[in-house]
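Consortium newsletter contribution from the modelling node. Members have asked for a concrete example of what our holo predictions look like. Here is one, prepared for the heme C complex that several groups have been discussing at recent meetings.
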Amino acid sequence: MPATLPRFIVMRSTLLGLSLLGASVALPQHAYAQTEPTKAPPHQKWSFDGPFGTFDQASLQRGFMVYDHICSTCHGMRSLTYNDLLGIGLSPQTIGALAHSKQFPGPVDEDGQPTTRPGTPDDHFKAPFPSDAAAAAMMGGVAPPDQSRLALIHPHGADWLYAFLTGYHIPAPAGVAAVPGKFYNDWADGHFIGMPPPLVNGALTYPDGTPATVEQQAKDITTFLVWASDPHRTARHHIGKGVVLYLIVLLLLAFAWKKKIWKRLHGGA
Ligand code: HEC
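And here is the predicted structure:
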């Protein structure tokens, strides 16, 4: 990892354009099979699947970029501190520079004016809005939920997030009445949601050269959100494996011991 975070070109204007366009134009185009959001989303292959799964670090780092450059414009993630990003392999220098680039509310100055201060690695991720009420007011009535536990809210966590992030249809499918200011998504409750499609092909440039398709970004941000919902899981798995190994060794020793003692009792030694 380079010492400073690489810059990205995020096409926020695209997001804005889409949100202005809204779902108000429904051009009847193609026959469309509606999916029930209650159905289980298709299963994707995840690096962290299963008891021995480990997070793909490159994907985690790309996922954090997606969060930092796109999702964090609207969604907070208050349970994480910048230092927690050591867990996805960012260096202390990168983390320091990243935290420093964010402005936090500081103490009031002598004239009673509010000030700002640069962030430190111990700060929790900066929230985009001062409060949920302010967020709701800015976002047409619904506050974007905090993303700290997003991957745990839905029964099919990762698969649902991926399906949802790749499940927009703009305009809404033929025959579906558009809802002004809402966007059609196969996997949203009631199919319409207040969040404009956040992912756009090539909206950012990954420094590792991975093409930033919508699907790739969805995969990476989902991996990051699953990690973020339980950042200490990897450490716990390591300890767990150590404990199991220790118990196996103990068991073997106990067997050897038992054999030895019984041999003696039978008059062998
Ligand atoms: C322009 C602001 C904005 C951006 C950028 C944004 N979101 Fe949202 N998001 C919202 C709003 C507003 C809602 C609530 C919408 C609603 O409930 O109608 C929401 C809801 C969601 C939900 C739905 C939760 C649920 O249970 O239904 C998920 C998941 C989500 N966002 C993920 C993301 C991810 C991942 C990103 C970044 C790739 C992102 N959002 C970027 C504004 C945004």
